[in-house]
Design a protein that fits this description.
It is built from five helices and no strands. The protein is an all-alpha fold and 166 residues long. α1 crosses α2.
Length: 166
């Protein structure tokens, strides 16, 4: 916690804020990011919940049902992980633990986004396998995974490592 606090103090000094103002802003920012991610998860999860009740679901075969299971599990887990910071915040509300909330939410978002990328990709695989066939579906999904990894992780981590302000 001292490390995060000193980071908040450094940011506060650079921005002309108090450390508490920095933490307040960080909590608000991370909760807003959760709102954006959870919307995607909710739409995907709603689609997945209805799929087994469709008449063609029984025709999916082993590959399709396995992909569906991976999609459902990753999306359900993403839902839980992305909502966890809200509960964490509520449980620590008014306990002067904002640095812990920000740290937990940051980690939850990284894990939740990874699970969301898995869910999105496997949902696309499930649909495209039916529409285009196995290998075109796998090819498109590989491209989606690559794009997701580069844009969600690769580019931000490179920016973080170089530390350049653009």
């Amino acid at each position: 916690m001292a490390e995060k606090r000193s980071e908040a103090e450094r940011t506060a000094l650079a921005r002309g804020e108090t450390p508490d103002e920095v933490l307040d802003r960080n909590v608000n920012e991370v909760l807003q990011e959760i709102r954006v991610a959870i919307t995607a998860v909710q739409v995907l999860f709603a689609f997945l919940l209805t799929l087994p009740f469709q008449s063609r679901f029984a025709d999916l075969g082993t590959f399709g049902t396995t992909v569906y299971a991976v999609t459902m599990i990753s999306t359900a887990t993403a839902t839980v992980v992305l909502i966890a910071p809200v509960s964490f915040h509520r449980m620590l509300f008014r306990r002067r633990q904002k640095a812990s909330i920000v740290r937990f939410a940051d980690r939850s978002l990284v894990v939740g986004l990874t699970l969301l990328l898995t869910g999105i990709t496997s949902a696309v695989l499930l649909v495209l396998d039916v529409v285009l066939g196995r290998w075109p579906a796998v090819t498109v999904c590989a491209a989606i995974v690559l794009i997701g990894l580069v844009t969600w992780y690769g580019l931000p981590l490179r920016q973080r490592r170089t530390g350049r302000a653009d």
